Amino acid sequence: MSTDHVVLVTGGNRGIGRAIAERFVAEGYPVAVTARSGEGPAGTLTVRADVTDAAAVDAAFTEVEEKLGPVTIVVANAGVTKDTLLLRMSEDDFDSVVATNLGGAFRVVKRAAKGMLRAKWGRVILISSVVGLYGSPGQINYASSKSGLVGFARSLTRELGGRAITANVVAPGFIETDMTAELPEETQAQYKATIPAGRFATPDEVAGVVTWLASDDAAYISGAVIPVDGGLGMGH
């Protein structure tokens, strides 16, 4: 299958973002990724952008538009953590995480929306986290930024839903990444004991949900939160 819809994945050089970009390439989409350093997977166009900088985001989109065409599928995946308990959390610990995870999605989606409106078609997919709805000690900044994406997607759905533009949230749980691989085995076992599925997800299991949300099969789904967490966050 090939498609004319151009995909942009932020933070597409590693982890979940990289797996999402690879999956879109495999399904025949033209794909660009933003990265502050490193390169996206084979078959993608890598553009430099810091999502906290609106001018950098604009320049990245302009480069993608010149080389691939207008972006009509945007996956806001770039994210950072600065974990610490509330009473030790500095103003910068809070502000910088929110500026990247929530503000970054705002800047990227705002820039993408112009092309989607012209095309009268669009897919906005925001990568949140089970923590956004489940909560986690030491992650007040991160959880706040990730739950904020839910209000973002639902408000955007009410603004642009009549223009064949959908906005949805994917909320992964624990994923097999370099970060989780470095955890002590005992800690990994404790986490897995809380997950009904009894295991971590592969990045590709998240990517499959994202590409499905971008497909015609998901055209009537908007404002939804799709958990990919093995049942960890049920009831939220």
UniProtKB/TrEMBL annotation:
Entries under SUPFAM superfamilies matching the protein: NAD(P)-binding Rossmann-fold domains
Keywords in alphabetical order: Oxidoreductase
Annotated Pfam families: adh_short_C2 (PF13561)
UniProt cross-references to InterPro entries, sorted A to Z: KR_dom, NAD(P)-bd_dom_sf, SDR, SDR_fam
GO molecular function term, any single one: 3-oxoacyl-[acyl-carrier-protein] reductase (NADPH) activity
Enzyme Commission number, as recorded: 1.1.1.100
Top-level division of the source organism's lineage: Bacteria
Top-rank EC class of the record's enzyme: oxidoreductase
Domain spans labelled Ketoreductase: 5-178
Family indicated by similarity: Belongs to the short-chain dehydrogenases/reductases (SDR) family.
Family matches, as PANTHER family: 3-OXOACYL-(ACYL-CARRIER-PROTEIN) REDUCTASE, 3-OXOACYL-[ACYL-CARRIER-PROTEIN] REDUCTASE FABG
Record-linked NCBIfam families: PRK12826.1-2
Entry protein name: 3-oxoacyl-ACP reductase FabG
Originating organism: Microbacterium schleiferi
